[in-house]
Structures are given as C-alpha cells and as structure tokens.
Amino acid sequence: MSLENAVANDGISEGGLHKAPFNFPGRLGTGRFLWLVVLFALLGPGLGFFVFAAGRIAGTKAESDLRDRALAARPLAADTLKGDVEKQRLIPRVLARDGAVQEMLRSPGTGGEAALDEKLRAIARDAASSVIYVINSEGTTVAASNAGEPTSFVGRDYRFRHYFVEAMASGMATQYALGTVSKRPGLFLSSRIDGPEGPLGVVVVKVELDRVESSWRESGFVVFTSDERGVVLSTSVPQWRFGTLSPLSKKEAKIARDHLQLPGAAFEPVPLSHRGGNLVTASTADKAAGFVTVSQDLGKVVPGWRLSLLIPADAEISAAMMTARATALLALVLVAFAVSVIVRRRRAIRQRQDALAHMNAELEHRVNLRTAELRRSNEALAAQIAERENAEAKVRRLCEELSQANRLSILGQIAAGVAHEINQPVNAIRTYAENASRLLQGDRPRETAGNLKSIIAITGRIGAITETLRSFSRRATGSVGPISAEEAIDGALSLLSGRIRECGVTIERQRTDPSPTVMASFVRLEQILVNLLQNSLDALKGLPEPRIEIALAKNKETVTISVRDNGAGLAPEIRKSLFMPFTTSKEKGLGLGLLISEEIARELGGSLRLDTSHERGTSFTIELRRAE
C-alpha cells in the first residue's frame, strides 16, 4: 500500500498525529479548528499592525525620496529666477554711469531725450526687458524705452514709488509691485545716477517674470516666492499671487499694501495647509492634493524673498504604501501557507516538496517582477539625472556667448573681403582646369601636370584662408598657455587682408626675431587684434595715405603689442569714457568692442590701454605676461 493510500485510509501520520487532506478546514477536528480560531484571534491584531507599519514605513521612505527630488529640483528653479534678475540688474547699474544719461539730466531740454529714448528701446529689446526708464531727481520720467507709445512713462510722476525713494537714498533698490499703467506685476530694479553736484536721478528697469513662471509651470511642480511677511509674489499658480501663507494682522497688512502699493488688496490666505513634516495640502485649479515642500532664501539676489517648491506626493506615497502593505500581507500569507503546508503535510514528503517548489517558483517570479520594477525606476531616475546635467551644461554654455558673438560679428564684417580672397583663386583654378583639359586632348602630359600642380598650390592657398577663418570662429577654450605673438598678428592680418587691400592701407610692421612668446589664448588674442585693426580701418576710411603701424616690444616680464594709425584721432569726450559700455564714435556701433577686448586682456592676465602721448592718430597697447 502506498503512503498516500495509508493516509487516506486511516488518517494517521508517521508521527501519530491526525492529519486531514490539504486546505479543507471543514474536515479538521473540532478541537484543532477551534485552536486555529483562537490563534488567529490572538495574532490578528499583531499581524494587522505589522501590515499597517510596513505601509507607514514605505510612505515615510517615499516622502523622503520625494523630498530628495524636490531638493534636487529646487536649485534649478531658483537659478532660473536668479539668472533673469541678475542679468537685468546690470542694466540700471551700467546706464547710471552712461555719459549720455548724466548729460541729459544735467542739461534737460537740449534735444537729447529722443536719442536716449531710442537707446533705451534698443537695450530693452536686446535684453528682453519689459521697460527701461530714467527719472530725474524730482521724480518725473524724462526718458523711457516705451516713449511715444500709448502706455509711455514719459512725464509721469513716480515720487510715490519705493524703488525711487530708496534708490535716491541708498543708491539701489528693489520693489515688486503692479505697474501703474500696465496693471501687470513685475520686479522693479533701480540704480541712482550720481553727478559731481549730487544725485541726478534714477534708472529703472521693470522685469515681468512671465518667462520664469512659465518655466516653473512646465517643470510640473508648484513653485512660488514670498516676501518676509509671507505674501506670495511670483508664482506658477496665478490665482495664488498676492495671497498670504498665513493670516496677516491689520498692521502687517497695512505695511504690505504700502510696500507692494496695492491699496485694495485683501491678502486672502492661499489654500495651503501643513500636514506634518514636509507634507502640505494645497489646492490648484480647485483640486486639493498633497505635496512635499522645500524652500530656500534667495539671499542677495532678491533680499527678503523665499522660494518654495511643491512636488506632487499623494499618488506616489499612496502607491508605495499600497505596495508595501500588499507585500507584507503577501509575506504573511506565504508564511502562513508555508506553516500550514509543513504542519498538514508532514507525512506526505513528496507533496510537501512539490508545494515548497511551487512556493519557491512563485516567490522567484515575484522577486523578478519587483526587480524589473526597480530596474525601470532606476532607468527613469538616470534619465532625469541626465536631463538635469544637460540643463546645467546649457547654463554653462551661456557664459561663453558674449565673446563668441563678438567674433562672429567680426567675421560678418570681413566676409566680403574673404569672399574676394577666395574668388580669385577659384577663378584661377577654373582657368587651369580648362587649360589642362585642352592639353590632355592635345596629348601634352607635361604641360597638363604643370597645370595640375598650379591647381594644387592654389587650393592650398584657399585652405589656408578658410583654416584661418575656421580657427577664428571656433569657440575659445579659455585655456592660457605660451603662444607666439607674431603668429597671432599674422592671423589677424590674414583675416583682414581683403579689407586692408580694399581700403589701400599700408601696414608698417616691425618684426622681432625670434618672436616673443606670451601667456595667452591664441584665438582670444587674435580677437583683440582684429577689434583694434577694424577700428583703425574705420578711422582711416577716405583719408589720404592711410597707414597702420604694428610694433612689438619686450622686457623681462611683459611683452607689449602696439597698434597705431595716422587717422584723425579720438575726440576728448570719447577718450574720457572710451572703455565704458555703449561709448562709440561710429554711426552703427554699439560701443562694446573695446569693452570686450579690455575684459579679454584682463582675463589673460594683461591689460589694454589707450596711448595719449601721440599728437595725431590713435594708438592702443596690449600688455601681456611674457612666457618663461
């Protein structure tokens, strides 16, 4: 008789215990069944607590993971705002030192207002500013980038604005408020204009943060800033603007209305409540949901402002808790199942082994499923990290744009000359090719070979020209090392050779053998030289016997490169502010070339200066460190 038949016939196991067939509690003995009921009654609360605790721990872990994600996203949200504000903050500072602005305020009514309006309009357009305007010491706007428009600020009195009063008192000011004309909120950045006799007025730029708020919305997070009283200012949820994070007292509300200049503001609390820890409940678009929140002060960029970032949490925390509880419950079920199998199948060794094998296979399958889920989660996280690194790299690339734009502008100016340089060799190549074709037909291989050698030589000349252009247009790496000063001068003259011949300018050059070696970047030094030579060519246009002298001098520690022309020279008023932004004597110049060149020379550890010892013409000197 088999073991299974023996169990079925007498129900007695090898250990002498009564054993019923598997998973049929109705066939258990009454005492055994009651014992199981009592056991489940005793263990039930503990098992329930275990399942609840597992969900709670998983929820806390999910909340911590969400907080880490929020902390990782917070700097990017803050940098988006800081970058926009810092870029715009430079505009009033630079314009406050602009000679044309100061002269117009010192001598109003002399006709300079229209030119200043156009200048402000061009700067506002290039910098993407909402509006730029100049206020005199009496609080009246005298020039604006929106002059002539229905919403023009010219002639309006802004003595009541805090950014005017504070800037006149302390030099600079920042204020977030509604525009009195546009009725649109924005950040006003102001800087005082000082003259020898005292303050002349204030330059103001208004920054509407629509682009920043749009970027926040696109991130999928809720982002907003608040002032020291908890009033919400810029935000990705427009209906929260000018709400408060907590109720304000009458005194605080009065101060807030005065500073924001919102006389009728009610300052209703935003639908945001804390649930404990980093969790909050917030309503966006009439829908309440849970979020994990992090915040930080914006520091000196916008004093008194605090940025908060909310990342949706309900779905992820609930999913984590449900998964953990299901896993815990499944584990309990599996343990109970295993115990049941061991207790009720002690006699049936083969059946027990089959059951254990089945359980192991099921467990392995579930582990594989969970491992696949974790792998997909890791891949998604890696993709997010890569995307964030790409965004940071993009921000770093923006820092190189100004110098690269200047080089490309220079390339655009000399393109015609370079085209002429290449056009002549191309015509020559065509002539030699046609001659070679005829010579081949006439069975004259020696003469054909001569023509082909000429074509090769001409293509080498074209290659040299295009290589010079390509090297100049390539982005500079910023690395400084020993380079030949003579080779940098050769490169600059090669770039401008077409225009030099077109203008009929004589280049007088004192070569030094061997060429002195300086510590610099080849492309950036070449950029300075091209800027100086371009200015000289512009100054010599239409003059008889134009001439440019290039001289090198070296001493123990430095090497100087001088570029001098025999033009009419610079007017005294231009000399005083030559290296200030937007100072130019050209009709279509922006006044940034010498400023960029001086900055490049400083970054290379040297300097660029105007020589005032010559009675005629204009002379600039580049001084660089001599290489060991």
Q: Would you write up a description of this structure?
A:
The chain has 628 residues and is an alpha+beta fold. It contains 16 helices and 18 strands. The protein has helices at 3-10, 30-96, 99-106, 113-127, 162-170, 210-218, 250-260, 314-344, 349-398, 401-441, 445-473, 485-495, 497-503, 522-540, 572-576, 593-603, and strands at 131-136, 141-144, 172-178, 185-195, 198-207, 222-226, 232-235, 272-276, 279-284, 287-297, 306-312, 481-484, 506-510, 517-520, 547-554, 558-565, 607-611, 618-625. The strands form 4 sheets. Strands 7-6-11-10-9-8 form a 6-stranded antiparallel beta sheet. The chain has a 5-stranded antiparallel beta sheet with strand order 2-1-5-4-3, sandwiched between helices. A 5-stranded mixed beta sheet has the order 13-15-16-18-17, covered by helices on one side. β8 and β9 form a beta hairpin. α10 packs across α13. The longest helix is centred in the N-terminal third of the chain and has 67 residues, at 30-96. Residues 1-28 have low confidence and may be disordered.
